[in-house]
Amino acid sequence: EGTPAERDFSIRLFKYAFLTSGFKGTLNSYHDLAPAELIKYIGMDAFIKRKSADLVSDENYLSTEMDNFFKNSWNRDDLVPSITRYDNQKTISSKGSTVALITDQDKLYRGKNRNGNPVYAPYTKLGRVNPTLFKYIGFLEDSNEAVYVAVDKKGYRKDGFVVKENVYEGTLFAESNKLGLSEGVVSKLTASKFSNLISEIQSESKRNAYKGFIPLENNEISVEEMKESIDNVVSSEQIAQARMFKRLDIPTETLNEIENEATEVTLDRPGLTNFWTLPNNQIVWLEEISDIKTDLKSIPKPLTFSYQNNAKLVATGVKTGTSRNSEQSGLKKGESAIQEVGGKQIKVTYHGLLNKGQADSALGMPYEQAEAFESTTTGNPVETSTVQFIKNKGNKHIYSLELLSGNVNYSVSNYGYRSPTQEEIEQRIKECM
Predict the structure, then answer these.
(1) Does pLDDT of 239 surpass 60?
(2) So what's the pLDDT on residue 422?
(3) Which are the contacts of 297, defined by CB distance < 8 A and separation ≥ 6?
(4) How far apart are CA 112 and CA 398, in angstroms?
(5) What is the average pLDDT across 305-311?
(6) 408 to each of 69, 293, 340, how far by Cα in Å?
(7) Torsion angles phi and psi, residue 11, rounded to 5
(8) Which tens digits make up the pLDDT trace of 17-75?
(9) What are phi and psi of 101, to 5 degrees?
(10) What gap in Å lies between CA 55 and CA 66, rounded to an integer?
(11) Contact 291, 298 (CB under 8 A)
(12) What is the pLDDT of residue 292?
């Protein structure tokens, strides 16, 4: 149907939809309007099969494709996080732009790879309006700090219009994406050539700052760790959090216990069930066994603290008492139980239906002080029954709240200096759910 010019335009429009959206529904995608046989007619089915085969057989090809993926996704904070902490005195500049920097920012750290080397996010960015994109190329031997170098971005996006440049070696949008550096400088902004750039730095202090630079050789990070960063986004939130391997500061004596193959340790706070990177750079799985401060049962019916900022006041220990017009906890008079509020364990004790004087005595302080009304959003009680109660009119069900900050037992599984596999992570999460 249509003239040759119209058919040619339709085919080019179809190819454009594929190149810019990957056949995902967007404002600029028209693939859903095209007949399915068009894919075979223009040879796109063979193209997809050939690319799929390349992904399996050629690791260098996969590395290049992943580089393209991150360069085209620089605007996504979940894939390319912004850097906020680095040593400005150790940056390398060219034509007024930062082309290399050193950082050990926690949110970029991913743990250790199979070679025992530190792994950081494959890419990061610096700046807000038109940020500079940086690639992780190596680390400093003594400090394990990451070294990032500036690279060109790819793609174009404005007002909902998005163009991906996955099939182009460079970028068509030079003004917004290219660094504007000489080829001589750009050629040295790689893992293998960066040492040459270091030797050309005139400042002795900056040369010394990069002393002991260890490059990521043979695309050491390109495939495995880039896959891992992508998995952080496409997997479940729990797996994504587990793969971050955030640093956990623990007492030296506890660290020594773990180094000596302890299978259980005691820490001073709950809620640490996860994978962690310790100060000695070992990766461990901690799983909470029990709170050793109390053997109290969980509260049958948890009290709600959704009004104003009450939950925060309870979780921080500011609010030590609360009242209800009816009994809502399922506890008997004088009985205590444990309830979690804002990630913290709270001991709740029910004192019964009391008047103001009895409430003051049971709480060990004036009722209004225990309720921390001055620290609430409104700065004073607003419920009519509560206002009347403070004026010694009527009775209310009284509960005392105690923030438990005691020690907690954890089982320890030490993975040493290797990152757990996807299967190990999923199994751990499944076991503790």
Answers:
(1) no
(2) 63
(3) 337, 338
(4) 52
(5) 83
(6) 43, 8, 14
(7) -65, -45
(8) 776 666 665 665 666 676 767 777 777 777 767 766 655 554 555 567 778 888 888 88
(9) -150, 165
(10) 10
(11) no
(12) 46
3-state secondary structure the chain: CCCHHHHHHHHHHHHHHHHHHCCCCCCCCCHHHCCCHHHHHCCHHHHHHHHHHHHHHCHHHHHHHHHHHHHHCCCCCCCCCECCCCCHHHCEEECCEEEEEEECCHHHEEEECCCCCEEECCEEEECCCCCEEEEEEEEECCCCCEEEEEECCCCEEECCEEECCCCCCCCCCHHHHCCCCCHHHHHCCCCCCHHHHHHCCCCHHHHHHCCCEEECHHHCCCCHHHHHHHHHHHCCHHHHHHHCCCECCCCHHHHHHHHCCCCEEEECCCCCCEEEECCCCCEEEEEEEEECCCCCCECCCCCCCCCCCHHHHHHCCCCCEEEECCCCCCCCCCCEEEEEECCEEEEEEEEEEECHHHHHHHHCCCHHHHCCHHHCCCCCCCCHHHHHHHCCCCCEEEEEEEECCCCEEEEEEECCCCCCCHHHHHHHHHHHC
Amino acid at 424: E
Residue 138 CA from chain centroid, whole number: 21
Average model confidence (pLDDT) across the chain:
79
Assess contact for 83 and 125: CB atoms under 8 A.
yes
| Beta carbons within 8 Å of 231's beta carbon, 6+ residues apart | 239, 240, 243, 422
Query: pLDDT grade, residue 234 (50/70/90)?
Result: very low
Tokens matching residue 344: 């913290």
List the structure tokens of 13: 């429009």
Residue 288: what pLDDT? 82
**CA atoms of 318 and 425, how far apart (whole Å):** 37
Residue with tokens 């082309």: 99
Q: What is the spatial distance between Cα 216 and Cα 222, in angstroms, rounded to a whole number?
A: 9
Structure tokens at 308: 């104003």
CB 320 within 8 A of CB 337: no
What is d(CA 225, CA 252) in angstroms, rounded to the nearest whole number?
A: 30
Tokens of 40: 């075979």
Nearest partner of 158 among 14, 22, 13, 27, judged by Cα: 27
CB 197 within 8 A of CB 92: yes
CA angle, corner 113, sides to 110 and 115, nearest 5? Answer: 150
Is the CB of residue 279 less than 8 Å from the CB of residue 422? Answer: no
Distance CA 335, CA 347 (A): 10
> Which residue shows structure tokens 């709240």?
401
Nearest to 413 by CA among 182, 242, 192: 242
**Which tokens hold the place of 79?**
């894939």
> For the CA atoms of the chain, what is the radius of gyration?
29
Q: Are 372 and 381 in contact (CB under 8 A)?
A: no
Amino acid in position 387: V
